[in-house]
């Protein structure tokens, strides 16, 4: 979709009710379904993070940026995600965290990003994080500068491909619940995107479909 056309729909995005659980559950591993229905963080003392779901023009076409994380000893090693990271005590709020981390990880200055709205927070049991996603846009063509210690690569995903049902697949992956589980996922440029990122992507996708196609 042409980026200028996309911008015309932005005001409608602000008014859409977030589908939250209804969207998350569609891309959740089966083992997580019950925990999503009965979330209680009171005894878990989770860490907090924020991520940026950033749309921008590339050759005048609307794109969404995702990052490929480096391999490391951790539950999110080499996974696909949004730019973002851990909330720090000096951060003004979660939106500030998302902007700061996006700047650190992919080199996009906060001045270039307009935050449109927060999306539904999501608890991630394996890492004990609550993640706060924010929808943002940049009206400029972007030059990404990757933080090599955190980011191995980026994926510049055209909006038209993101909205296609053809990228939704069922696959088998090792999870914290099982040696091998069948999970719903997005197949994006030969990458399998599942778990929390897929759940957040699905809420974003449902909101955009409601705005663009209704």
From TrEMBL:
Pfam family, one: NUDIX
CDD domains listed in its UniProt record: NUDIX_CoAse_Nudt7
Domain Nudix hydrolase intervals: 45-180
Keywords on record: Hydrolase, Magnesium, Manganese, Metal-binding
Alphabetical list of InterPro entries matching this protein: CoAse (IPR045121), NUDIX_hydrolase-like_dom_sf (IPR015797), NUDIX_hydrolase_dom (IPR000086)
Cofactor(s) named in the record: Mg(2+); Mn(2+)
Entry protein name: NUDIX domain-containing protein
Lineage summary: Bacteria, Pseudomonadati, Bacteroidota, Flavobacteriia, Flavobacteriales
